[in-house]
Amino acid sequence: MPIYRSKAPLRLGLAGGGSDVAPYSDQFGGAILNATLSLFAHASIEPTQDGKISFMLPDRNITREYDSTTILPIDSEYGLHAGIYNRLVKDYIHEPLSFRLTTYVDAPPGSGLGTSSTLVVAIIGAFAEWLKIPLGDYDLAHLAYEIERLDLGMAGGKQDQYSATFGGVNFMEFFKDDKVIVNPLRINKTYLNELSHNLLLYYTATSRESATIIASQQKNVLNGNTRSIEAMHQMKNQAVMMKEALLKGQLDKIGEILNYGWHFKKQMADEITNPLIEDIYTSAMAKGATGGKISGAGGGGFMAFYCPGNTRHAVAEALIQFGGQVQRYEFTSAGLWTWTI
Questions:
Q1: 270-292 CB burial, b ≥16 within 10 A, e <16
Q2: pLDDT for 272-305, tens place per residue?
Q3: CB 85 within 8 A of CB 53
Q4: Which residues have CB under 8 Å from 127's CB, separation 6+?
Q5: Does the annotation count 106 as an active-site position?
Q6: Which of 117, 141, 214, 223 has its CA 20 to 30 A from that of 174?
Q7: Structural domain boundaries of the chain?
Q8: Nearby residues of 47 by Cβ (< 8 Å), 6 or more positions away
Q9: How far is CA 103 from CA 80, 319, 336, in A?
Q10: 310 to each of 199, 287, 315, 319, how far by Cα in Å?
């Protein structure tokens, strides 16, 4: 029997974080600049003849088996997997399937690199490879968004599904009615190599519940919190600044732009930072970093610091005391890949 596989890259948001979250993006429009990394979400589907549906998550030591049916129950451990299956059966397949789905992700949940959304894209990709579902990039990313945000009610923005599908360095614009435009950026290879050399990715060894932070951010917009809304305006402006700096090779400005965004990011919701994150940020800056950020919604997970020259080594050594670890990576140009064995 053939095996249908896929992988989709995780992403690092470089600027504009939070402006892709409704209702802000619906009212004011959002802009994000992100880049995909050599860390992936993986999915493999093995069709079976035993009348069973099996989910296997080796990175979380979890397995689950169901009798084949058109609608699976949604629970906390398998919500993504079941939700994707239910939607694809409803919209495209219209009959129960029998298969084994194995998934794993190269970063832990709650790390701020878009793990959940990227996994959704990877799983849809594997099903599309198996069942020959005709989905273009925009169609697939939007379907992933709808499954996660609407079908499953998981709070979050719109950038992750599109970055995982398209891959590369992208300037993304978000409008009302879920309209998204992905603008791929042709960054000079020298500039991109220097960026990856200088941009240190640090895992704080803590995770967070992004939904709580995002709900707080959404509440601030709905309540007309001017301080929070103005901060989101500035984050959107940061994405434009970052785009110009990368395209023009003004790498000496990257740290400054990151620091600019960090100042405003913290004003979007109280839960975005905490004493540990502040201590890590202060220590990195003291050892030569010129700016940094928390990845994703905030509160924990990965942080990134721009370390010009050869300061990354001193910064990395200083961060050891906080119990986390530096994550090796490269920027990638490709998005979702699917294939058959």
A1: ebbbeeebeebbebbbebbbbbb
A2: 888 999 999 999 999 999 999 998 766 778 999 9
A3: yes
A4: 4, 45, 84, 85, 88, 133
A5: no
A6: 223
A7: 4-186, 189-326
A8: 1, 2, 97, 98, 99, 130
A9: 11, 31, 15
A10: 11, 11, 10, 16
Type of residue found at 98 = S
Tokens representing 199?
Answer: 């941009």
| Structure confidence by residue, pLDDT tens digits, 135-178 | 999 999 999 999 999 999 988 889 999 999 999 999 999 998 88
- Report the C-alpha gap between 340 and 4 in whole angstroms: 5
Answer yes or no: are the C-beta atoms of 233 and 31 closer than 8 Å: no
Which residues are CB-neighbours of 220 under 8 A, at least 6 positions away? 228, 229, 268, 269
CATH architecture assigned to 4-186:
2-Layer Sandwich (3.30)
Pick the CATH number of 189-326 from 3.30.70.890, 3.90.1150.10, 3.20.20.60, 3.10.20.740: 3.30.70.890
The model carries a pTM of 0.94
3-state secondary structure (DSSP) of residue 183:
strand
Interstrand relation of 52-57 and 99-105 (parallel, antiparallel or unpaired):
parallel
